[in-house]
Amino acid sequence: MDSKKKELNKQVRKLMQEFVGQTVNFYNHLHEQSVCSSSKKETMEHLEMQPIPQYGRPVREVYSEMLRDVYGNTILEQHPRSFSCIPSTASLLSWMGDIMTNAYNPHASCQINAPAADLIEKKLIRWMCGLVGYPQRSGGLFVSGGSIANLTALTAARDAKLTYADRSRAVIYVSDQTHASVAKGLHIIGFRKDQIHMVSTDSSFCMDISSLRAAIRNDVESGKKPFAMIASAGTTNTGSVDPMQEIAGLCQEYGMWMHVDGAFGASALLSDQYRKILSGIEYSDSLSWDAHKWLLQTYGCGVVLIRNQSDLVHSFAAHPEYLRDSETSEGSIEFWDLGPELTRPARSLKLWITLQALGKKEMGQIIEHGCVLAGLAERMIRESPGWEIVSPAQFGIVNFRYISDGKMSEDQLDSINQEISREITESGFAQILTTELHEKKVLRMCTINPETTEKDIYETINRLKQSRIIRKTGEDVSFE
After folding, report:
1. Long-range CB pairs of 382-388, under 8 A, 24+ apart, other chains included
2. Torsion of the alpha carbons at 377, 378, 383 and 389, rounded to the nearest 10
3. pTM for this structure?
4. Which residues of the chain have pLDDT under 50?
5. What is the pLDDT of residues 436-468, one digit of tens each?
6. Which of 118, 182, 127 is nearest to 363 (CA)?
């Protein structure tokens, strides 16, 4: 190694040592940080004008610029008072796994490249299949997230259930709460919008089985082919879980593929208390599951599981001549045979590190903690004059809104609740965004972060109730 490279490596080592210390300190004091902060106009203009240099810049200068201008202008989704979307629960253990895995950069497509990493991914897949209740012939692989997991599973479903001639008359059933990535995935693999039939949900935002059964019968009578059913195990809007036992029965009756989008809620399988809510998931043909949602992982750690691994092989296996030397045996199944990626990172290792360090029991307690906090938020709102619960606490998510004295129009209430969301988000204390349920704009809280405390819930809801726009009504009531 030449002296120039040695000097660069020396600088990188010093910077990384500083960075690790700074990052641990940052996480230790995350509660004191603002969840959201406005990016400065001059910072964005500087980045916009930053060229790719002809010759390199000092590495410390680049490092400092990235910390200040890029990472310093990011919403802290991992903050204990980030309640929007499905917030990040990323832990330092997962981050450590990222650093270690990226340092060694294993090529995790086949056993010969990284045998230990390959073994760990297979062990985790078997363990997760076991939690679901899948048989020995099941399998799967780690992917970037729920969107690609859904796409992968639905590709296998198409190829297993439909001939080319059948594809044009096939019908897929989703609910009005199904994640948008499902429709996107179906479009990518060749289905038209009119082939996706949206089924209404009941008062709990779960798929209405009577409506589903009627839709299937109508499609059969019209000469269409019911092909796949998408059940949700924890919807993004409300945390609702579709009635999987009944859905499984209909899928068996009509020969349909049952896919469960469990990107968020499947993690409840680790909780002795809440796994029963997912009863029927064991009858599904495939499942998407994001470890980067409720299992403390940094982004890019999703899983697709499938009842019959051979269905993935049928859709994705390819054996070009330049890969033959990497096959461990005649007819061996490698991870590149199970999904669309050839080159792929070892996504499973950071989850393995986290599980080894914490254990299954603590992970289950984290699920239960998130659900308890959503229940607390619900109770506070129910006891507050001028507020209503729109969707009760389910899997760590609760939806509510301010309704004043009930004399305002829906448009006025929508505007007020939007302003309440804007005010608390811009304050930096917490982030709460709105969604729409039953054509009403509502405030939504997802309380799954294990670092979130009861105090965070009390203080956040009190701040909502003390919003400037509410104080004008004279109905401010706070909890002590």
Report:
1. 384/461, 384/465, 384/477, 385/475, 385/477, 386/470, 386/473, 386/475, 386/477, 387/465
2. 130
3. 0.95
4. 475-480
5. 999 999 999 999 999 999 999 999 999 999 999
6. 127
